[in-house]
Design goal:
This protein has about 450 residues and is mainly alpha-helical. The chain contains eleven helices and no strands. Helix 3 packs across helix 10. The longest helix is centred in the middle third of the chain and has 42 residues. It is globular.
Length: about 450
């Protein structure tokens, strides 16, 4: 940068392009301290190569160069500060350092970007963990009629089916008494374990169907709650109905993948056991199962956002899984941690409700609490009905929280990667929403 009179610091080198010792513009003769007479009007200007005067003025006497005013600062930088002690103004009075006690910078203090629009239960910007959990709870509180109506309906239907199956079929068919008998043979233990796994599997599939149905309906409710728009149960059903079959297919495909990966991990150990490997084969099967479980968990988190992608984007099953993998990429641990936290919180709250009902059911409808704790009690219809009421209430809590967190995680990842907040703001009718200058 070429030095100009008034901006060069004392003792600075000559301007670029002039060699030391060459001539340059002479100093004014009438400047205080120069000791030279003022030039006559008819004096000829000296050549432009004169050297700078060795006598520089004190720094306090320097002033900003005159000239055309600097362009006004751009939007977002504020107005120029007033002159006076503690303020410095640049050329033309624009911009400058601000006094201590305020915020440094050019112009008036900058207060940061404006707050994000919040037409619904979340602000339209990248969300924190607390905001995601709060958004799920706020959805349940704001649209409690629709949310609790959907959760109650699904939970009651599922629990009625479970109670009927347990009371009419499973309790008579499944014999698990050998699991608590120390003298039971290996064949009896194997038979009892098979019956227990069959019973648990049937109940799990039924509960899964209810979870899928609740998730499908609550996804629509949560997406409308983000925009601040109400939705009825009928509207949620009409919006979700075309995708429910695909959602069932997605859930069962994910289950098949998880079971297949776990079985593939245990398969080498199983083959060794069949070949007479003994304890070595059992150890290999255990370690293989653990490795398969870790891989299955990684895949399930990777595809955990496929459900809202399928429901909200009206995608196919494979496309929804691809979208989930893209959104989770690079954020696996964050998605895993938030979903684990939401699941733990929901199950703790549900357990606070379910456990008292279970002990009450054991006290009034079976062989007492002692038989329930020992696992030797014979529980009838009263136990099943009372414990089923507790399960319904617990499901009314867990369904909205888990479904809401999954949907809000999907929205948050799209905001972070695809600027979905702009689309949501336009859909919610927010005026003047967009990126601020300099952001």
């Amino acid at each position: 940068m070429n030095d100009t009179p008034g901006w060069a610091s004392p003792g600075s080198s000559p301007s670029d392009g002039h060699e030391p010792g060459t001539s340059g513009p002479s100093e004014p003769a009438d400047r205080p301290g120069s000791g030279q007479p003022s030039p006559q009007p008819d004096a000829q200007p000296q050549s432009p190569g004169a050297q700078w005067s060795p006598q520089q003025p004190p720094p306090a006497q320097w002033s900003a160069p005159s000239g055309p005013a600097a362009p006004p600062p751009g939007p977002g930088w504020g107005t120029p500060p007033p002159g006076g002690p503690g303020h410095w103004q640049g050329p033309g009075g624009h911009g400058g350092w601000q006094a201590p006690g305020g915020h440094g910078g050019w112009g008036a203090p900058w207060g940061g970007p404006p707050p994000a629009a919040k037409p619904g239960v979340i602000p339209l910007r990248p969300l924190g963990v607390g905001e995601i959990l709060d958004g799920a709870v706020s959805t349940m509180r704001t649209h409690w009629r629709t949310v609790l109506g959907i959760s109650l309906t699904v939970a009651v239907v599922i629990e009625v089916i479970v109670v009927l199956l347990q009371g009419l079929v499973l309790n008579d068919y499944a014999d698990t008494d050998a699991l608590g008998d120390p003298s039971a043979t290996v064949d009896e233990l194997a038979q009892a374990m098979g019956d227990a796994m069959l019973t648990s599997g049937v109940l799990f599939v039924i509960s899964l169907i209810g979870t899928v149905a609740a998730t499908a309906l609550l996804t629509t409710v949560t997406s409308r709650a983000v925009l601040g728009k109400p939705v009825t149960t009928g509207e949620a059903w009409r919006d979700a109905r075309p995708q429910i079959a695909k959602l069932f297919g997605l859930i069962f495909l994910l289950l098949l993948i998880a079971v297949g990966v776990g079985f593939a991990g245990a398969l080498p150990g199983i083959l060794v056991i069949w070949a007479g490997g003994g304890s070595g084969g059992a150890a290999l099967a255990v370690f293989g199962s653990l490795a398969g479980a870790v891989l299955a968990l990684w895949l399930m988190i990777r595809f955990s956002l496929a459900s809202p992608a399928l429901m909200l984007e009206k995608q196919s099953i494979t496309k929804a899984m691809s979208r989930s993998a893209k959104l989770v990429r690079g954020s696996w641990w964050r998605v895993f941690g938030i979903q684990l936290l939401a699941t733990v919180i929901a199950n703790i709250v549900a357990a606070i409700v379910v456990i008292p009902f279970t002990f009450l059911a054991a006290a009034v409808g079976g062989d007492g609490i002692g038989g329930f704790v020992d696992g030797t009690g014979d529980f009838g219809w009263t136990f099943l009905v009372v414990s089923g009421i507790g399960s319904v209430i617990g499901s009314m809590i867990t369904f909205p929280i888990t479904a809401g967190v999954t949907v809000l995680l999907y929205i948050d990842q799209r905001i972070r990667r695809e600027a979905l907040d702009l689309e949501l703001a336009r859909a919610a009718g927010v005026q003047g929403y967009g990126p601020t200058p300099g952001s």
